[in-house]
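DM from R.C. (forwarded with permission)

"hey, sorry to bug you on a friday — could you get me a structure for this? deadline for the figure draft is monday and I only need the backbone to look sensible"
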Amino acid sequence: MSTGVLFDAPGPRTVRRHRLYSVISAAAVVLALGWVVWRLYDADQFTHDKWVVFTDPDYLRVLLVDGLVETLKMAFFAIILAVVFGFVFGIGKLSDHAWIRWPSWLVVEFFRAVPVLLLMVFVWYALGIKEDNSSFLAVVIALTLYNGAVLAEVLRAGLLAVPKGQAEAAYALGMRKTQVVWIVLMPQAVKIMLPAIISQCVVALKDTALGTWILAPGLTKVSSQIYLEFNNRVPTMIVVAGIYIVVNLLLTLLATWIQKRFVGEKKVLEVPMVGDAQTRAKVPR
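My reply, with the result:
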């Protein structure tokens, strides 16, 4: 259908009004950015001595190797463990056994409610603040618990979003619940969940910046050492923010490619529905 069924197509006057709103909004954004740039210039934040450090190969190596690599390591381990955590407790919340379902619910709701920074501090003290790598592990564990709890809810919602007819058809064929979940429901739920999983991966990467409060290695720790030495807090924050933006964009592009490559091209398996041989439930392999 070429026309919308939920709203009327805008007329010429509405189209002109929307274009005017767009122009005004764009002008407001440009003016706001211009005001910010002018304020930074007026505060001498664009002077050569505040930016020259980022042309020094030694400082760039420290920023990218000691900072970015450590940040990516923390994010990588946290994301992998969070996915495992989310799958375990997401399935647990859907269990038919109360002794599995209720503890899973309690764990997920607790770690969703506790702020990430507080988790980092608690874990850091629990591991021992004077122990080697305790701050690194505290960041990984805290991000795993928080993001894993969120992914558990994403998994539960994704499984429940699959049409009930898919599970009913599988049960009619004699499948057990485990087979129904992993063979029939999970492949379809992954397609529903993937955008939220990608978003949570970006959140985990950004939240590694909180590790600076517990002396964890990473971009924020290295950046603090740089701006304390050169008194260039704003330029350093701009550079670090740019690094985070580029890495997050690359992560999003990678996840989108994976979605198109491995999820978007799934073949379908036709499962006959009970009582009607002509009705088919399409299930991704």
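R.C.: lifesaver. The longest helix spans residues 57-93.
me: no worries. Residues 12-43 form one domain.
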